[in-house]
Amino acid sequence: MTMRQQYASDNYAAICPEAWEAMQEANVGSAVSYGMDDWTTRASDALRKAFECDADVYFVFNGTAANSLALASLCRSYQSILAADMAHIETDECGAPEFFSNGAKILTIPTEGGKLTAEAIRRMARMRTDIHFPRPAVVTITQPTETGLLYSLDEIRGISAVCRELGLKLHMDGARFVNALAALDCSPADMTWRAGVDVLCCGGTKGGMAVGEAVIFFDRTLSDGFDFRCKQAGQLASKMRFLAAPWVGVLRDGGWIAHARHANGAAQRLHEALKDVPHVRPVFPVQANALFLDMPSEMTAALRERGWVFYEFIGGAARFMFAWDADYAQVDRLARDIAECARDYRQDAR
Ligand SMILES: *Cc1c(COP(=O)(O)O)cnc(C)c1O
After folding, report:
1. In contact, 67 and 130? CB cutoff 8 Å
2. How confident is the model over 102-138, as pLDDT tens digits?
3. Ligand 1 atom closest to 173 (CA)
């Protein structure tokens, strides 16, 4: 049974062909378990090559684990994690970062649309230094943000400069890292370690895999014990080759980036198609694979009646999030339906 293509989330999408084919290639004979196999070595090497860096690479099942375990290794239990108020680690991980760090506190910084600034980080980090307050140890930024905004390379460099100045580590939640790569058209290295990022949680699932994220430590001194952390948290896959192989698949011919470009293109396409439609307003600039639309509740109800599925959990706007498989004809149908709902709304209002 298949449902019609929806854009409620990029994890509604199926597995992209490159990931699927690599899993099929890996699905032959025996392989050593727990990551000591050739596929895991190949995938780690492929990521090191893509990032032009001799990083430590780990594969875990999902983004919550990747973020939580990475952050736990960057701070102690009495320290704090500086994050945007809209950060996934704060709003959508059920306290996992606090849990896995044994109580480190997330300090949220108010933002317009989820983007931190160097200034705001400095202010928050310096606010208190007394013994009654959890000492800031790490800053996390989401690239692109939960709202589909991008940090420019300059902005990342500015944030990492403040982090270095204040002795903070810099973590990047890259659940949609590849969409940022495609949008900024820069190298993975430039967006991460060359800009001062210490650890990246690099999304696989939303980029087209069945399951799995890569945790990449550019500063290898920070990964001490991370393998044990993964095991303890139930994140060490015994048949690791199947978490690893998709990375080999998506990285070998640039399929990963191409798919992200396609997904970003769908967001742009819907955005363009709605430019002259009344009563619908994009809430955030469209920079990656997301489009957030503000419209009257009568219109969202009418859209749902037409069978469209979407969430409004971020700031009340209707979110449309596109994946590698976005069918542009279906995106056009959505645009048409939104335009028709706007027309009906106007007639009702008269
Ligand atoms: C989807 C997502 C994650 C990971 O979520 P899981 O469901 O745990 O895989 C992490 N960060 C952001 C910003 C996300 O959108």
Report:
1. no
2. 999 999 999 999 999 999 999 999 999 999 999 999 9
3. 11
